[in-house]
Structures are given as C-alpha cells and as structure tokens.
Amino acid sequence: MLNNIKIHFLGAAETVTGSKYLIETAERKILVDCGLFQGIKKLRKMNWNYLSVRADEIDIVLLTHGHLDHTGYLPRLVKNGFNGSVLGTSPTLNIASIILKDSGKIQEEEAERANKEGYSSHAPAEALYTIKDAEKAIEHFKDAKEGVWIDLYEGIKVRFQYNGHIIGATFIELDINGKRFVFSGDIGRKNDLLMKSPKKPKKADVLFIESTYGDRLHQEEDLESKLKEIITKTVENGGTLIIPSFAVERTQTLMYILWQLRLKNVIPEIEMVMDSPMGANVLAVFHLHEEWHKLSYEECSQMCSNFRIVRDYKETWEVIDSKKPKIVIAGSGMITGGRVLTYLQQCLGKPETTILLAGYQAEGTRGRQLLEGCSELKIRGKYYPVKASVENIQSLSAHADQSKLLDWMSDIENTPQQTFIVHGEAQAADTFRVKIKDHFGWSCKVPELYTIEEVNL
C-alpha cells in the first residue's frame, strides 16, 4: 500500500514537449495529459519507448487542452493497453480529435514517402501510429464540464477551469483526500484577441506550473505597422508571404488580424490563403463553441469569407503555381510537418519569398533553425538553400510570459507544499524557479524527466 502519493514525470520535464504526469495513489493511477515529444531527434525517439508504468494499469487520462504535445501520445497509450476514459472539455476533445487524426495521417504519409524515396534510416520506416489508431483513442473520449467538480473515485475529484491559450484549454484541479494538485497546462494571455482571460487558482498544495516563457517578457510590438511593411514588400516584390502556423488558435488569430487590417485598408489588396485542412476543421469548432471565445458566429463567418480556404492537396499546387503575390497561412507552426513543407520546398530558395514565424519555436525544429539564421533547411531528406527573408513576431504567442505567469499564481492563498516547474527548456525553467522563490518565497523544483517525487498525504 502507498502511504504517499507518487508523481511520475513522464514528459515536459526540462523540456517543453511530451506533457505527461502520472499521479499514483494506493488505489489509482491518474495521467494528466498524454503528449507527444517534438523537436530534436533525441526527444522524438522517446515516443517509441514504453512508459515506465503499464498502460493497462492507468485508470483515467485528464487533458488540459488539445495540442499535440498534450494529447499526441494517446493512440500509442491505447494501442499499448489503456482502456479507461479520457476526460476533457468538449472543445478540447473536438480539437484533440482533429489533431490526432491529422497526426496519424501525416505519420502514415511520411512513412510511405520515406520508404518510397529511401531517406529513412529505418527499413522499413513505420508510422508511430495510424489514423485507425487515432480513431480508437478517440472512442475513449468523455466530455467534462468547465468549472464544475466531478467525482472520479472515492476521495478523488477533479475540476477543469478556463485557461485561455486555445479554445477549450483549462488548468486542472485534482483533489485527492483533501490535498489539491493544480496542473497549469498552458496558460493564455490577458487581452488575447480571441480568447478570454484565464481564470486563476485559489488553492494549491502541489503546483505544476508551465515555464515556456519563464525567462522572458513578451516584447511590445507595433504589429499593424510590421505586418503592413512585410505585406507591402511582398506585393512590391511579387512574392509569397508564408506564415507557418499552429492550426489551433494561432491560425484563427492570424486570420482575424489580417481580416481587420483589410477592413481598415491598412494593407494592399493581396490574395489571402489558409491552407490547412486541420485549421479549417478548427474553424468549425469555433463556430460550435461561441461561449469559449470572443468572436460571434457572424464575425467568424465574415473572417473566413476573406480567405481562400484550401482543403485538397491539388489546390495547394494551384496556389504555389499562381504567380500573383499572396499570403499563405499553413501548418505546422514549428515547420515539423504539414502543408507548409511543400510551400517551403518550392519557395525557400526565392529571394522574393518572406517567411514569417509567429509562435514559439522549440529546440531542434526547422522553425528554430530558421530563427537562428540557418543557410539551408532539410526537408523530406533533401537540403534546400534559404534565400527567402525570415521575419519573426513574438507578440502573437498564446503563452503567458514570466510576469503573467506570476500574476496567474498570485491568487493562491496558501503556500504550496511543493511547486514543480515544468513545460520549459532547462534555462527557462531554472530562471523561473529562482523568480518564484524570490517573488513568493515558495519551495520550487525543476524535476528531471522520468523521475518520481513523493508527496505526503
């Protein structure tokens, strides 16, 4: 019998991706988030490993939100024997369904292409999971109402609280025999263009706080002027502005900003394209869940009408072959896969092309390489010279920065027994650890991946 609660850090410890935290009591094993590792090869290879606990022994999975680094391991978990429920808010489950099926499709296609063109070190290359695997995982989904305590088991209850960031996102409060575990998930920003301000926890005995931007403050930018300058240059050069974008929230935010700039006649007339089947499906989720964001149904429809929304891959080539200047928003946000790779293969070597990075770029991703000024980029086994201009906008991040993370924690009335700094690269996490200690006087720790911590009951 366990006298204490064990916490297994199975992901997003000293790294941003792969969020998985297993809470083990004497009777239950509860997994909070079930994310995929992304970025450098060392991390990606971990997706093929079995967890340190048996999948069939996990009772339930709780999801903070639908992003791949918080949900993308679910098909593997089910494939390895998990047979419990996966709880999340309705829009989170909608988003996760879209993302998991898209991820399975991409992995199948990448494996097929790698085998055909012979650029994989594995013979044969295999998909981590397939669309069918994703669909089997989705069968385990179960809606949870936001802001309402749900009894899970004797002495254990959970509540999902609105957290901004993306549609459906929450922080999770897990009460175990009166001790409260708070999992921040990814915290959104106040005054976001689309999302409402995050709620804040009032109590936390054990706190898991993200630190994606734990070592920095978001820069204030004149976004309108910068976009006007970039788009005007694109039109004058007869080029293409490519914006790699996360399909959830970031794509919709970019569409909203560009639509507003067009309404105000700030930018010149130019074709605007949203090429992401997943992004198009997410727009349907926005229509379905008006209460989770700021846009009305009519505004959402008007915004969409200003874009050519591409679903079919053949249409992608029509856009590429067009000689007219254009703006293309395409997934994925860190250029790890998706339609944006096809655009970059064709346009990266053209000086009239501009690539606009508009979100966090994790270590080891193509987005980070471009951000750091690489001269060539490897895509699908081949190297492409970078002659395009590369621009970066930091003010569109869906993550709270250091000051807003501290503000999110400021309503906690008690002193947590333990605070774990998670979901951040090593420097960001450690910088934030020191900041929390100085600001609140709380005991903090940056856990190492695959370590186990104990909490007294």
Plain-language structure description:
It is a single chain. This protein has about 450 residues and is of the alpha/beta class. The protein folds into two domains: about 5-215 and about 400-455, Metallo-beta-lactamase, Chain A, CATH 3.60.15.10; about 225-390, Rossmann fold (3-Layer(aba) Sandwich), CATH 3.40.50.10890. Helices cover about 30% and strands about 20% of the residues. It contains 14 helices and 22 strands. The chain has a seven-stranded mixed β-sheet. It has a seven-stranded mixed β-sheet with strand order 7-8-9-10-11-20-21, with helices on one face. Strands 14-13-15-12-16-19 form a six-stranded parallel β-sheet, sandwiched between helices. A hairpin with a 4-residue loop joins strand 2 and strand 3 (about 30). The longest helix has 28 residues, at about 90-115. The model has no long low-confidence stretch (mean pLDDT about 95).
Keywords, separated by commas or semicolons:
2 domains, 7-stranded mixed β-sheet, alpha/beta, Rossmann fold, 14 helices, globular, 22% strand, Metallo-beta-lactamase, Chain A, 457 residues
The parts where pLDDT drops under 50 for at least 5 residues are none
* Main beta sheet strand tally, sense and closure: 7 strands, mixed
How does the overall form come out from the CA principal axes? Answer: globular
Q: Number of domains in the coordinates?
A: 2
Separation of termini? 13 Å
